[in-house]
Structure formats: C-alpha cells, structure tokens
Specification:
The chain is mainly α. It has a domain at 24-86. The protein is 41% helix and 0% strand. It contains 4 helices and no strands. Helix 2 packs across helix 3 (48-62). The mean pLDDT is 85.
Length: 92
C-alpha cells in the first residue's frame, strides 16, 4: 500500500501484540480506497493507510473469522494513523 513502511516488526512490541492477536488479514489498495471514501462520507479525514483498518475488519467479518455470536459484545478499536492525502487511486 502506497505510504506504508512497515517491513520490520518492533521487537519490543511484537511479543505483547502476538499474545493478543486472534487473526490477521491483508487488504489491497482498492479495499482501502473504498473505505477512505466511506469514512470521508462520515466526516472522518483518513487516508488509505488509516482506512485500511476498517477494510481489514470488514474482510474478517465477511470471511467468517468470527461468527455472529462471537461478535456480540465485542468492542473494536480502529486506529487511523494517517489523514487524507494525495495518492494514486487504484483501478476497480
């Protein structure tokens, strides 16, 4: 994803994060872009890296990683680490 620079995992943070990780998912540029548009429509100033968290959550739910019963009462915090910026819009 254009703008992301996360090739090295933090050796300090990873053991803690790994212990609390239930699932992981990869999202593409188009999925992130679609979530940028959706967040902007809701007044959230997010760029593609910031919107990728919403795209990932949507993908996890669509793939059935958590059943509807497992999702009840779950609180999800999505971090948006980037505001809107210019980027090449991916083709559909």
């Amino acid at each position: 994803m254009c703008g992301m620079n996360c090739g090295t995992t933090s050796s300090n943070a990873w053991p803690i994060m790994r212990a609390g990780t239930y699932a992981a998912v990869a999202v593409g540029d188009r999925e992130a872009h679609e979530c940028v548009l959706e967040l902007q429509a809701e007044g959230v100033d997010a760029g593609p890296c910031g919107a990728a968290t919403l795209a990932a959550l949507r993908k996890l739910c669509a793939e059935g990683v958590l059943t509807e019963e497992e999702r009840k009462g779950v609180v999800v915090v999505l971090f948006s680490t980037e505001g809107n910026r210019e980027y090449d819009v991916p083709e559909p």
